[in-house]
Structure formats: C-alpha cells, structure tokens
Amino acid sequence: MKIVLTSVLVDDQEKALRFYRDVLGFQLKHDIPLGAHRWLTVVSPDQPDGVELVLEPDEHPAAKPFKSALVADGIPCTSFGVEDVRKEHDRLTKLGVRFTQPPVNMGPVTTAVFEDTCGNLLQIAQRH
C-alpha cells in the first residue's frame, strides 16, 4: 500500500493553483472540469509520477470551520520536505509569502510555517 493522493482544502482553486504552482514550484498534473469545480492536482517537479496533491474545494460544511480552527491554533494542515528551510524561507519571503513561524530548529528537524493564501497554514521541514 502507498499514498497516491492527498488533499488540501482551498477556498479558490484558481488562486490555489497560482500559489502552489507559481510560488511553491509544484507542477500541474491534472486539471479536469467537474461541474462547478475541477479535479486539480499538482506534483513535485522532482517526482512527477509521485504523490499528487489535490487542490480540493472547501465546500463541505465542515471544511471551513475545521480550517479556521487549525489556523487559529497555528496548526499547519500539511508539511512539505525541503533541502534547506532557511533558504526556502528566504526565497518565499522575497515572493511575498507571509510566515507565521520563521525557521525554528526542533532537534531532528527545522521547520517554518506560512499561509497559502487559500485559508491554510503549511509547514516546510528539513531533516538533519
């Protein structure tokens, strides 16, 4: 068994695509119209056949309260691995990304947390 899809609930799929592709650097994998929404996935450019991240509309009644509670408590909805958190922090900051937690060494990892412009907090992490 392996993970092939995981989702991030977003308030606007087009805005999410611009952020996850143009700012974070993921590649578009699928963009299939489905009524009012799309089956919209991105992948790491390093693993184009790897795990797909679904940019899923937060239309379910439980989604927005769940997202708000996580943000209010400062909890990221997911984490992405990077080679160098401080370097990625600097790159994203220059692109206008708002960090809620700058890089912090936490023993075996260094992490930083930022807003995705779509109602979520995301974490980047570097293993030591």
Describe this structure in words.
- It is a single chain.
- The chain is of the alpha/beta class and 128 residues long.
- The protein has a single domain, classed as 2,3-Dihydroxybiphenyl 1,2-Dioxygenase, domain 1 (Roll).
- It is 24% helix and 41% strand.
- It has three helices and eight strands; from the N terminus they run βαβββαβαβββ.
- The chain has helices at 13-23, 63-72, 85-94; strands at 5-10, 27-34, 37-43, 52-57, 78-81, 99-105, 109-115, 121-127.
- The protein is globular.
- The model has no long low-confidence stretch (mean pLDDT 97).
What would the keywords be for this entry?
128 residues; alpha/beta; 2,3-Dihydroxybiphenyl 1,2-Dioxygenase, domain 1; four-stranded mixed β-sheet; 3 helices
Question: Helix proportion of residues, in percent?
Answer: 10-25%
Give the uncertain stretches in residue-range form: none
| Dominant shape | globular
Main pleated sheet: 4 strands, mixed
Structural category is alpha/beta
- Name of the CATH architecture: Roll
Task: Bin the strand percentage.
Answer: 35-45%
What's the tally of helices?
A: 3
Oligomer: single chain
Helix/strand order, N-terminal first: EHEEEHEHEEE
CATH class category label = Alpha Beta
Radius of gyration: 15 Å
What is the number of domains? 1
Query: Count of DSSP E strands?
Result: 8
CATH superfamily: 2,3-Dihydroxybiphenyl 1,2-Dioxygenase, domain 1
Q: What topology, given as strand order, has the largest sheet?
A: 1-4-3-2
Residue-averaged pLDDT, rounded?
Answer: 97
**CATH fold topology:** 2,3-Dihydroxybiphenyl 1,2-Dioxygenase, domain 1
Query: What is the end-to-end distance?
Result: 27 Å
